[in-house]
Amino acid sequence: MAFSRAERVARRRAKLRAAGLRPIQIWVPDTTRPGFAEECRRESVLIAQADATEDGRKEADFWERITADSWEDVG
Domain-by-domain residue ranges, the chain? Predict the structure, then answer.
């Protein structure tokens, strides 16, 4: 007996739920959208410029300190 696509999806989801899982939806940037690369470059320039200021260096140092232990586990 052949199941429709909708029935196969429903059966698969039921099995996953029975295993204690639940679906979630994650929205991410559309990298194919016109202007995406240009916006990345614009934001990168702003970050580089911020790093050249005293406040920017203080901000970077702060984040380096509070995330240092996380990075130790990575590498």
Answer: 30-70
